[in-house]
Each structure stands twice: as structure tokens, then as C-alpha cells.
């Protein structure tokens, strides 16, 4: 069964405005553990890649800034190719990525994952503000978080590089200076 935005969050409020920075942490169709649920599906509803694109493209009342916009997109190793596809479908050009190095190993069939990628793309002409931002997020300072909750350091890095206004898609909580769109965000 394919979930839609209405299935996940029927009363969700969508952001309004033109944004120069978009962050997304989609609920990728990440499953793990065979009969024992150990993947993301045990924590929240998942979306297939075409549905992630549709949700982001059809969310009313928001748009990337016509003069230029940055997209930051979280992906796991299994969804790297999908992440690049999402980025292109949204009209962004992939530029580089950052890595969130985790203290603990996760699941994996061939290699056990111990990091997540934060893809960075641009639309139009919008230069970054901090050219000295390292691509490693966390490193020795990584703190254990709840499932899928991204480290504070990632938001700080994004804020150093990308000007506002900013919006986070598939957000888990509100953050000062950001609009938030997600089924876990309290209204």
C-alpha cells in the first residue's frame, strides 16, 4: 500500500512563503530485520520515493526562492541513488555532501552503517556563506539521539552555510528561525 501525505498527517499545516534553504529528512522506505522489525518502519510511516517527491512538490503555499535556493537532503546508504533522484526531480543540482558519523553501528547486509549522508544541492545562483564548513558532522562529539533525530551540529552547519528563510520538511520538532512541516511537529 502506498501512503499519501493525507494518510500520514491529515491535519498537517504546510509552510507558506519563498525559501532560500530547504532541509528534508524523508521517511525513506527503509526496512530491516526480516520478520523482526528493526528498520525505520517500526518508528513511523514510510513513503516510497515517488511519494516523497509528490509530497514536496505538491505541498501548497511554499516554493524555493527564484533567485536561488539550497536543498539539504538526508539519505541513508541504501537510498543514496533515490536521494539524488529526489534532488533532481525538485529542480536542484547536486553539489556535495556532509557525513554524520555515528558512535554506534546500525543495520546492514554487506557493511553495517555507521553514518548518514546529508546531500547538498543548489537551484539558481545562491552562494554559501561559510566556505570553511567541514563535511564531517559530529565526529568525536556525536551524542546518541532517538531514532532518526539529527544532531544539533547539522542544523548549526546548515545555518552557517545557507541563508534564510528556512523550512524543514518531514520535521520532528520546531526550531527557532525555521518553518517546520511534518507529522511529528506539534501545531
Can you walk through the features of this model?
This protein has 187 residues and is of the alpha/beta class. The strands form two sheets. Strands 7-5-6-4-2-8-9 form a seven-stranded mixed β-sheet. The chain contains four helices and nine strands. Helix 2 packs parallel to helix 3. The protein has one domain: Rossmann fold.
Q: Tell me the series of helices and strands, N- to C-terminal.
A: HEEHEEHEEEHEE
Tally of helical segments: 4
Mean pLDDT: 79
| Broad shape | globular
Q: Give the strand content.
A: 25-35%
User: Looking at CATH, which topology would you report?
Assistant: Rossmann fold
Q: Could you tell me the number of beta strands?
A: 9
List its traits.
9 strands; 4 helices; 7-stranded mixed β-sheet; alpha/beta; disordered N terminus; 187 residues; two-stranded parallel ribbon
Blueprint (SSEs and pairs):
Layout: H1 5-8, E1 17-19, E2 21-24, H2 49-58, E3 62-64, E4 68-75, H3 80-89, E5 93-101, E6 115-124, E7 136-137, H4 152-161, E8 166-169, E9 178-181
Parallel strand pairs: 1-3, 2-4, 2-8, 5-7, 8-9
Antiparallel strand pairs: 4-6, 5-6
Helix pairs in contact: 2-3
Short description:
It contains 4 helices and 9 strands; from the N terminus they run αββαββαβββαββ. With 187 residues, the chain is α/β, with parallel strands linked by helices.
Amino acid at each position: 500500500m502506498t501512503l499519501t501525505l493525507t494518510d500520514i498527517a491529515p491535519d498537517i499545516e504546510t509552510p507558506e512563503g519563498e525559501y532560500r534553504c530547504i532541509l528534508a529528512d524523508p521517511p525513506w522506505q527503509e526496512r530491516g530485520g526480516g520478520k523482526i522489525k528493526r528498520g525505520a518502519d517500526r518508528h513511523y510511516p514510510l513513503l516510497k520515493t515517488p511519494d516523497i517527491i509528490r509530497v514536496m512538490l505538491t505541498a501548497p503555499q511554499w516554493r524555493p526562492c527564484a533567485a536561488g535556493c539550497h536543498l539539504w537532503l538526508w539519505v541513508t546508504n541504501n537510498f543514496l541513488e533515490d536521494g539524488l533522484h529526489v534532488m533532481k526531480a525538485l529542480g536542484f543540482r547536486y553539489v556535495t555532501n556532509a557525513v554524520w558519523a555515528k558512535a554506534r553501528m546500525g543495520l546492514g547486509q554487506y557493511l553495517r552503517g555507521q553514518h548518514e549522508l546529508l546531500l547538498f544541492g543548489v537551484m539558481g545562483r545562491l552562494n554559501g556563506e561559510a566556505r570553511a564548513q567541514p563535511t564531517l558532522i559530529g565526529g568525536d562529539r556525536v551524542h546518541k539521539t532517538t531514532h532518526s533525530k539529527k544532531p544539533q551540529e547539522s542544523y548549526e552547519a546548515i545555518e552557517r552555510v545557507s541563508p534564510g528563510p528556512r523550512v524543514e520538511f518531514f520535521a520532528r520538532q520546531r526550531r527557532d528561525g525555521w518553518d517546520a512541516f511534518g507529522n511529528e511537529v506539534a501545531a
